[in-house]
Amino acid sequence: MVEITVKDFAIKIGCDIKRLLNYLKSAGLEHKKADKLLTEKDKQILLNYLNYQQGIKKITLIRKINSKIHMENKLIDIQIRKKKTFFKINTEKIERNKKKKDTKSLEESKNIHTFKIPKKNIIREINIYESNSILYLANKMAIKAAELIKVLLTMGVLVTINQKIDKDTACLVVEEIGHKPKIINTNELEKKLLKTKFSDGKKIKRCPIITVMGHVDHGKTSLIDCIRKTKLVNKELGGITQYIDVYHVNLDKGKNITIIDTPGHKAFINMRALGVKFTDIVILVVSADDGIKPQTIEAIEHAKYEKLPVIVAINKIDKIGTDIDRVRNDLSKYGLIPEEWGGDTPFIPVSAKTGIGIDVLLESVSLISELVDLTTVLDSPGKGVVIESRRDIGKGPVAKILVLNGTLNKGDIVLCGLNYGRVRAIINEVGKTVDKVGPSIPVEIIGLNGIPESGEKVNVVSDEKKAREIVNVRYIKYIKKKQKNNINKNLFKKINTINIVLKVDVQGTLKALRNSIKELSNEKIIVNIISASVGNINENDVKLAITSKAILIGFNVHVVSEAREIIERENIKLFYYNIIYKLIDGIKEIIKNKLKPKKLEKIIGIAEVRDIFKYNKKNGIIVGCIVKKGSVLRKKQIRIIRNKFVVYKGELDSLRRFKEDVNEVSKGMEFGICIRNHNDVKIGDTIESWDKLI
Predict the structure, then answer these.
(1) Spelled out in words, what is the top-level CATH class assigned to the domain 601-692?
(2) Where does the chain bind GTP (predicted)?
(3) 318 among the known binding-site residues?
(4) Is 221 annotated as a binding residue?
(5) In 3-state terms, what secondary structure has residue 310?
(6) Residue-range domain boundaries for the chain
(7) 317 is in an annotated binding site
(8) How far apart are CA 157 and CA 67, in angstroms?
């Protein structure tokens, strides 16, 4: 072990003796004098103190080295001083920096794209609708829209990014890119979107919906007036109902009913069909003095088709000469057997004028209502049907609806045909605004984005996005149907059509004639049989011929007197035949006349040349004329006729009357004209003003 004094150690390390003694004292060593000896252990303790205890960042050691330089004839002694600085290592900082570096490396490694290119292409299943946008298909196939457009271009389809393609083209391009197309049925998609979870809440009894039907002028509206104690019939034009309407009536003992009033005229068959589609009971009104009529039979057929219970109200029993038994007998032929005869149809004699039998009628309605399931869950989303709709200047689209199930609330999103919207207001029958409405109640709603058609179903949906999706699906179907109809319309516009109402004597002849007539159609004309039946030509046949612009053909039949009057008054074409081949030849002649060239122009006016005046040296002339028939118009074509030959056909340069430019001169007026690039006009020539028809 080498020992050294404090003084020598201080000199060796180049440190002041006093400073070294202070370090030794601080290190816990008892070296107070410079001549004290330092052992190796003491040096280690001092070094540890300097490194760790005091936290000195660095320590500098200076050493002196004596050396000699040999020069010519000289030897020079030199002293070299070497200085070394030792820095204390900060392990905490090193650890902190290392940790920070490791964290940064970890974060960077996460951001590195580790996706490996698959060996096989990913094949996706793409939903294809009736109409598909370029952006939709590109997103589903995970490619750029520009790339999809290029593929379509190679297939011969030129589109832009904002256009849509049909399902067939979409399927082809999806398969071309390497994916699987899946055609989505729009009907199934609509059902899926409309699927609503109904509440399992308590079922309640709703009031019955009654539809009043019958022939025109049999007293349907008067009967409703008697029940409601109103005077609706006085407000109707011509005393007949021309609109379908619905009323909620409060009866005695807290009972309520909803009544639908339908028109009875023949022209309103669609409205009557609509009325029975959402009703519970049909009240068939038959006039006791008039019996059953065509619309009575039609109402019975509607009720049977919808399998609805029928109550027969035999009206106008207060009149003299009524025969109730005759009405019972006639209706029994159509399956309505009175209860008195062992059937299940109530026959109630009533008088809407005096009120006789109304209480019995309402009691019968109440009894049948008990037998029919009229329950609904009040807490479920509202469902209904559109009765009528209109556009109000202040309110916008207004729809009168009948709620059938659930509850309709203010603020609900409703879907109605091709329209949807949030219900901004609900107006009841008396004009008051309400916050909600239950089943079997008619109300008006405001908030739809358009005017729905009568008969459209009303559904409450969860949100506006779903409503918009359903409307888009329906609109695609609507456009497709409209395009198909337009194609058919354009087809029939290009091809002439002959409509025929055919009446024959026996069924066998009817079948033979029908087939023979259809064979007469060709590429230029279509022979269309509107109606073909057995029997004499009656009033209904003539009216059908008028509405369809058809010709009447009778084979071994005659015309009844009422129909003959209409034929003569309306100048309907009527042809009689008793031999089949003559009938066929007759239709061929009609076809031949139909295919003759049509008149393509219309004569507006005729004038006569009375005088001719020169107005310049270049043979410019003014033709003085008088209008003989019609009018001469400035902007129309003219032709000059001389000795029944046309000598000029062109336009007017000017049209004047008393030195003033005018646009038209009428019969008996004198006027002057200048004719463009034509001076060959003579007194007595006829000038025709004409216009093109097509």
Answers:
(1) mainly beta
(2) 214-221, 261-265, 315-318
(3) yes
(4) yes
(5) strand
(6) 4-87, 125-184, 207-373, 377-488, 495-594, 601-692
(7) yes
(8) 97
